[in-house]
Design goal:
- It is built from two helices and no strands.
- It is mainly alpha-helical and about 90 residues long.
- It has one domain.
- The relative contact order is 0.07.
- The mean pLDDT is about 85.
Length: about 90
């Protein structure tokens, strides 16, 4: 006897009355297997999307930290420049 895959049999166009047809329980089992495969593929894609979202959130956070650091550095440099200008004015006067 040859092997008949439930999954493959569930894809067939049923409606004939052939003697070697699978039972309705076997067809339902094949359909459930196909649904399970599709669900696994959707879950895998969902996991990929979550990982991509987390990666972009991490990149955004790192960019924000770098931007804030650069802003603080610039503000500190401007403060030093202002203090030096005042010292120069006092020294000249």
């Amino acid at each position: 006897m040859s092997h008949k895959s439930y999954r493959q049999a569930s894809r067939a166009n049923w409606g004939t009355a052939s003697m070697d047809a699978l039972s309705i329980e076997q067809i339902n089992c094949g359909a459930l297997l196909r649904i399970a495969d599709a669900t696994e593929q959707m879950a895998q894609r969902h996991t990929e999307l979550i990982n991509a979202r987390d990666m972009y959130k991490r990149w955004y956070g790192e960019g924000e930290r770098a931007r804030k650091h650069a802003e603080r550095q610039l503000a500190a440099t401007r403060g030093v420049v202002t203090k030096l200008k005042k010292k120069i004015k006092e020294a000249v006067a």
